[in-house]
């Protein structure tokens, strides 16, 4: 698989790039962070970035964001699969086509399969090359979100549509080696059309400060959340859903193996009230604090409250960008043993058998009981984040892929 270059690619002139994001950009989670860091980073390198997205979402200073017409009575952020997204994607198609005709971009850069489908049609109509930013299987995500049942009547045709979409772009940017193998082995995409472009992090922003002001801020934040200043604290940041492993995480906290003085800070959405009730039913009401959605800009301050971070995601098809936030913050991290977790953490973190709440509890207990190992793991993870996942390295790889897709590099396609 083609990996990110170790040095700046030197790939030539700035480009006019039209990005397609079939989601409620910006919301403070997952794929939105990947889109934001790529768009902001490319704009910072002189590229002219325009992003087409749904009507709902938060504007970002410095990014040119065009939105579909508002849908009456529908304001909330879109998370996961739903039938009415078909109407939103139809609106996004017409917005993208209109914008592409007006701007005549050098390149279409599409996110998610719906964006790649829109980009494939618009690109064919206007002879504009398409790059697809691939973050996991379309049908796999639908199954994870319980929108589609494996083996159902709809599964096979949707799988064929997914394969058709995957073969349209000039290049696909895979967010992990696991995703790249998925594309080649399950969907028959030639390896030469895939570039490995992992999620990235800005280590300058995601870092733990230890000055007096930072320590006072942490005391204040803990008090505001009802957390004791000296309680061992496990932190989680991300979406709240079964495929993210939140049910298993709460079960792990209730295990006898985990220290009874350990507390859990759960930062994210949706379904907050559902999981609050689940925590209460497990006898954890006094040990779990739920914040709801956390602004991406505030994530470093909130993560700094933790002693240990946890990533209990069990999905076999998606990335896990939260791991990079944990790593850059130097947070000792326990994750379920999935291909993506192994790829991101390497041997610097700690893995528990996927889906095993008792094993997750034991791994967390061992870290909480071992300050020396926590300190050593903190240094290893921070170093790995800086050396492998700094946004500057990833942007080099994206620019090189854009150059190849536009036909400016010899023998790359």
Task: Please supply descriptive tags for the structure shown above.
413 residues, alpha/beta, seven-stranded parallel beta sheet, six-stranded parallel beta sheet, 15 helices, 42% helix, disordered N terminus
Q: How would you explain this protein's 3D organization?
A:
Helix 6 links the parallel strand 6 (171-174) and strand 7 (194-196). A 7-stranded parallel beta sheet has the order 3-2-1-4-5-6-7, with helices on both faces. The longest helix has 19 residues, at 85-103. It has helices at residues 30-44, 85-103, 112-126, 138-144, 155-166, 177-187, 212-224, 246-253, 272-281, 299-303, 322-328, 339-345, 357-368, 371-389, 391-405, and strands at 16-21, 48-53, 64-67, 107-111, 130-134, 171-174, 194-196, 233-237, 263-267, 288-292, 308-311, 333-336, 350-352. The two termini are 13 Å apart. Residues 2-11 and 409-413 have low confidence and may be disordered. It is an alpha/beta fold and 413 residues long.
Give the tally of β-strands.
Answer: 13
Low-confidence stretches: 2-11, 409-413
Number of helices: 15
The largest sheet is:
7 strands, parallel
In the sheet with the most strands, the strands line up as 3-2-1-4-5-6-7
* Dominant shape: globular
- Encode the helix/strand succession as letters: EHEEHEHEHHEHEHEHEHEHEHEHEHHH
- Give the amount of beta strand, in percent: 5-15%
Q: Percentage of helical residues? A: 40-55%
* Secondary-structure class: alpha/beta
Task: Give average pLDDT, whole number.
Answer: 91
Radius of gyration over alpha carbons? 21 Å
Task: Report how far apart the termini are.
Answer: 13 Å
């Amino acid at each position: 698989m083609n990996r990110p270059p170790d040095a700046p690619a030197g790939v030539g002139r700035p480009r006019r790039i039209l990005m397609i994001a079939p989601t409620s950009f910006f919301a403070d989670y997952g794929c939105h962070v990947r889109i934001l860091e790529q768009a902001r980073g490319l704009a910072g390198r002189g590229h002219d970035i325009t992003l087409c997205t749904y009507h709902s979402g938060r504007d970002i200073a410095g990014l040119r964001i065009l939105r579909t017409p508002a849908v009456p009575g529908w304001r909330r952020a879109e998370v996961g699969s739903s039938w009415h997204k078909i109407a939103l994607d139809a609106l996004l198609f017409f917005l993208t086509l209109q914008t592409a005709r007006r701007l005549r971009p050098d390149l279409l850069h599409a996110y998610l399969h719906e964006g790649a489908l829109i980009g494939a049609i618009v690109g064919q109509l206007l002879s504009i090359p398409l790059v697809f930013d691939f973050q996991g299987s379309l049908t796999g995500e639908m199954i994870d979100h319980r929108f589609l049942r494996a083996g159902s009547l709809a599964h096979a045709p949707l799988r064929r549509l997914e394969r058709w979409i995957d073969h349209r772009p000039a290049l696909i940017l895979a967010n992990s080696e696991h995703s790249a193998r998925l594309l080649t082995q399950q969907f028959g995409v030639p390896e030469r059309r895939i570039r490995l472009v992992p999620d990235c992090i800005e280590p300058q922003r995601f870092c733990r400060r230890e000055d007096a002001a930072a320590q006072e801020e942490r005391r204040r934040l803990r008090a505001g959340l009802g957390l004791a200043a000296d309680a061992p604290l496990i932190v989680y940041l991300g979406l709240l859903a079964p495929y993210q492993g939140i049910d298993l995480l709460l079960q792990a906290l209730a295990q006898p193996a985990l220290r009874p003085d350990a507390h859990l800070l759960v930062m994210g959405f949706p379904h907050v009230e559902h999981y609050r009730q689940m925590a209460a039913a497990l006898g954890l009401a006094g040990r779990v604090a739920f914040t709801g959605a956390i602004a991406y800009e505030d994530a470093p301050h909130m993560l700094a409250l933790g002693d240990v971070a946890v990533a209990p995601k069990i999905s076999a098809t998606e990335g896990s960008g939260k791991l990079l936030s944990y790593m850059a913050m130097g947070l000792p991290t326990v994750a379920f043993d999935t291909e993506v977790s192994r790829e991101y953490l390497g041997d610097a973190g700690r893995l528990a058998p996927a889906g095993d709440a008792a094993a997750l509890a034991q791994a967390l207990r061992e870290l909480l009981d071992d300050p020396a190992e926590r300190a050593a793991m903190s240094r290893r993870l921070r170093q790995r984040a800086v050396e492998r996942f700094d946004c500057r390295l990833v942007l080099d790889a994206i620019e090189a892929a854009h150059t190849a897709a536009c036909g400016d590099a010899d023998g790359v396609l």
